[in-house]
């Protein structure tokens, strides 16, 4: 099976500033991994490079391959990548019901516009996803009336509905209280056990699921470590990464740092 992602010597600029430096990375389909690092280290830019929102500088030796292809129609690529950002849903999405918000994932749109054609198969799939993410009670509720945790759950469903091969989550527990964070992690655990590939970007150690055996560490736009979770999630490595003293505790497969 072709890998989900293969990057060679990738450098990415935002404006006049190079924010990713010589990134070399391969990620397999169905893999569960976390990308960890302090704010501003380039994690979100790396996600945007994977989704072709940001493009590498043209340099000798640079290569980007996504699902085995170097060129994509972005509309087609979005159907294979389920992306959940840390941002709150937009104005149009907030006025949409949970069911319609999930249906909009088939079209990568903010809501169901009148020109879109919805098939019975799409509706059946959306109902399956509502059940899969344990959100049947949110079917007819407007997204804007939901709690932050409920909104995040619906956005995950929206990302999954088009049979996405990989789920990419950028700081998914942002703005969630402790109860909502726990519910989110349990949902992601269930998806991982069902075979959904998950790539998680975070600066919170507790977001890293027990099912994630691989961790990448980033700092100042570079990958500074890539390996098994047990080797990298240590107090000394985390203290170096975040440039502060870190203490670590493990419970039920989750790591907690303070």
Automatic annotation (TrEMBL):
The keyword Lipid metabolism does not apply. Residues 5-245 form the ABC transporter domain. One of its GO terms (molecular function) is ATP hydrolysis activity. It comes from the Bacteria. Pfam families: ABC_tran. Keywords: ATP-binding, Nucleotide-binding, Transport. The keyword ATP-binding applies. This is Iron complex transport system ATP-binding protein. It comes from Granulicella arctica.
